[in-house]
TrEMBL record:
GO terms for molecular function: L-lactate dehydrogenase (cytochrome) activity. Keywords: Oxidoreductase. InterPro entries: Aldolase_TIM, FMN-dep_DH, FMN_HAD. It comes from the Eukaryota. This is FMN-dependent dehydrogenase. One of its GO terms (biological process) is lactate metabolic process. It comes from Multifurca ochricompacta. Its cofactor is FMN. Residues 1-290 form the FMN hydroxy acid dehydrogenase domain. The lineage of its organism: Eukaryota, Fungi, Dikarya, Basidiomycota, Agaricomycotina.
Length: 295
């Protein structure tokens, strides 16, 4: 799947909480910029609405949470290709909703396809209210099952250690992995994706050379993108930046995010003295361990 930039829009739920057009704004912006986008299983726009604004050659990836109801999961997986999606991104780092205290205090009300016609619970935050269908027992055996149902490429999102990266890529032969801790919103002290990427570069550089490894989370500047590319990531996902932009300026804001990141990537490459992404090598990155807090 071609992209004009080594970035993609990470799948994030309920964009309509920020703007009436929700995910459609992100799809329009991604299509114009010719970048990839992940569509959340909990999107607030229907698949029909999303596909109605998709460019003919635009690639959208469906982010899948495994449903406890495997019959419903099977029906969804089987139809994704005919719906127009180019790949499936199975998310495994949020089988249970984390302790999101700000979300729980907000207790916002929402409606959309993921809500099955119900408004958000007054006793739960949005993440807990909409996540009840997710299977906490999602496991490795689900990978061959998904592959048996579709010809779409399968990407595993939420890998957080070298051993799982090896297992996913070498044993289960998935088409790619995303190193991710779900934006740091699930488990306190989960390793940052960039840290896991650095560990892969040190211990299993062959995985990065042979396979499609992506990261998302903690990316706010063009220099963050270049660090990941230097260490071997194929592309980098951004989520919050697009949600914030959508909430304030809609489609125009989403387009501006792409412009800012593009400008920063180009400028940073110029200042590094490189003229192509193939010149971004590990030697250009110096890894510094975080210092421990002093008592």
């Amino acid at each position: 799947m071609a992209s004009s930039l080594p970035i993609f829009i990470s799948p994030a739920a309920l964009a309509r909480l920020g703007h009436p057009d929700g995910e459609m704004n992100l799809v329009r912006a991604a299509g114009k910029a010719k970048i990839l986008q992940g569509i959340s299983n909990n999107a607030s726009c229907s698949i029909a609405e999303i596909m109605s604004v998709k460019q003919p050659e635009q690639h959208l990836i469906f982010q899948l949470y495994m449903n406890k109801d495997r019959i419903a999961a099977e029906k969804l997986i089987r139809r994704l290709q005919s719906d127009g999606f180019s790949a499936i991104m199975l998310t495994v780092d949020a089988a249970m909703p984390g302790k999101r205290e700000l979300d729980q205090r907000t207790k916002g009300h929402w409606e959309g396809p993921a809500a099955n016609g119900k408004v958000g619970s007054e006793e739960k935050g949005i993440a807990h209210a909409m996540g009840g269908y997710q299977d906490p027992d999602v496991c490795w055996d689900d990978i061959p099952w998904i592959k048996s149902l579709t010809e779409l490429p399968l990407i595993i999102k939420g890998i957080q250690c070298i051993e799982d990266a090896e297992r996913a890529l070498e044993m289960y032969k998935v088409d790619g992995i995303v190193l991710s801790n779900h934006g740091g919103r699930e488990l306190d002290y989960a390793p940052a994706p960039m840290t896991v990427l650095y560990e892969m570069r040190q211990t299993r550089p062959d995985l990065l050379d042979k396979h499609h490894v992506f990261i998302d989370g903690g990316v706010t500047r063009g220099t963050d993108v270049l660090k990941a590319l230097c260490l071997g990531a194929r592309a980098v996902g951004l989520g919050r930046a697009f949600l914030y932009a959508n909430g304030v300026w809609g489609e125009e804001g989403c387009t501006r995010v792409v412009e800012i990141i593009r400008e920063e990537i180009v400028l940073d490459m110029q200042l590094l003295g490189v003229t192509g992404l193939d010149q971004l090598t590990p030697e250009r990155v110096k890894y510094v361990e975080r210092s421990r807090s002093r008592l």
